[in-house]
Amino acid sequence: MPRCVIIGGADIGNYDVIRTYLRPDDFVVCCDSGLRHREKLGVAADLIIADFDSAENPHLSVETIVLPHEKDDTDSMAAVREMSARGFEDFLLIGVFGGRLDHTLGNVYILLWLVNHGKHVLAVDDYSEMEMVTPQSEGRVLPLFPYFSLVAVAGPVHGLTIKNAKYTLERADVSPEYQYCVSNEPLAGQIAEISLESGAMLLIRDRFA
Fold first, then answer.
1. Which of 90, 110, 95 is nearest to 43 (CA)?
2. If DSSP codes are grouped into helix, strand and coil, which group holds residue 130?
3. CA–CA distance, 157 with 115 (Å, rounded to integer)
4. Is pLDDT above 80 for 200?
5. Burial class of 194 by CB neighbour count within 10 A (0 to 12, 13 to 18, 19+)
6. For 127-140, what is each residue's pLDDT tens digit?
7. What is the 3-state secondary structure (H, E, C) of 154-187?
8. Angle at which helices 101-116 and 75-85 pack, to 10 degrees?
9. Using CA atoms, how far apart are residues 13 and 3, in angstroms rounded to an integer?
10. Is the Cβ–Cβ distance between 98 and 11 less than 8 Å?
11. Is the pTM of this model over 0.85?
12. Domain housing 55
C-alpha cells in the first residue's frame, strides 16, 4: 500500500525542502486550507477532508468528505482516522505545525495516536522533521542534522538512553515538568541512537544550526 500524505493548512515557507519528502505514489489527502499548498508542492489531491471553515470547497472531481463545523476531531485528526481505517500504515504529515499553537500541539498528539495504533509517521516543516520515540520504536539522528531534541509528551519517561551524541544518557528519567533533552548534537560522522523503556518522546531533528 502507498504512503498516506496528509497536508494541513499551516504555512509552508520552503516548498523546495518539503517536496524532497514526497514520492510519486503517495496518496495525498488535503485538509481544508491545506488545499492551497497543492500547486507549490506539485501534487494533486486524491482525497479532500474538510469542514471548509478556512477554505472554500473547490468542488474538484476527487472524493471529498465534508465534515460538520461542530465536532470533536480537527480536520487533520478526522483525516488520520479515515486513512487508518482504510488500512494505511505509513504516514507523512505536512503543514501541521506553525501558526496557531493550539493546532500545533494538537497535531503533535496525532503523531502519538498513530504510533500507539501501530502506524509509522513522520511530520516535516520548514525547519525540522519529527517523529515519536517509544519502547517499540527507537529513534536515530543522522549526522546531517546539526541538532536534535527530545520532549516528553505523554507523562514521565523512564529508561532513556542516548548514544553517539554530544550529551549521552544511560537509562535516565525525564518528567514533563523538566525537559532537559533539548538541543543535543549527533557526533561528527556518527548516527545518534535513542531508546527508552517506557513513555513517549517527540524526537525533533533540526536541519539548521
1. 95
2. strand
3. 16
4. yes
5. buried
6. 999 999 999 999 99
7. CCCEEEEEEECECCCEEEEEEECCECCCCCECEC
8. 20
9. 23
10. yes
11. yes
12. 4-126
Rounded CA separation 29/65 (Å): 11
* CA torsion through residues 87, 25, 91, 188, sign: positive
Beta strands in 35-146 (DSSP E): 47-50, 63-66, 90-94, 120-124, 128-133, 139-141
Q: Is the pLDDT of residue 3 over 70?
A: yes
| 166 residue type, one letter | K
Same domain, 202 and 103: no
- Provide the number of structural domains found in the chain: 2
Considering the domain architecture, whether residues 108 and 8 belong to the same structural domain is answered as: yes
Residue linked to cell 554530544: 166
pLDDT for the residue numbered 209: 63
What residues have CB less than 8 Å from 36, skipping those under 6 apart?
A: 9, 55
Query: If residue 67 lies in a helix (H) or strand (E), which one and from where to where?
Result: none
Which residue spans within the chain are E strands per DSSP?
A: 4-7, 27-31, 47-50, 63-66, 90-94, 120-124, 128-133, 139-141, 147-152, 157-163, 169-174, 192-195, 201-206
Task: For residue 139, list its beta bridge partners.
Answer: 194
Q: Going by DSSP bridges, is the β-strand pair 4-7/90-94 parallel, antiparallel, or unpaired?
A: parallel
Residue among 145, 153, 103, 111 nearest 128 (CA)? 145
Q: What is the CATH number of the domain that holds 96?
A: 3.40.50.10240
Domain boundary among the residues 126, 141, 167 is at 126
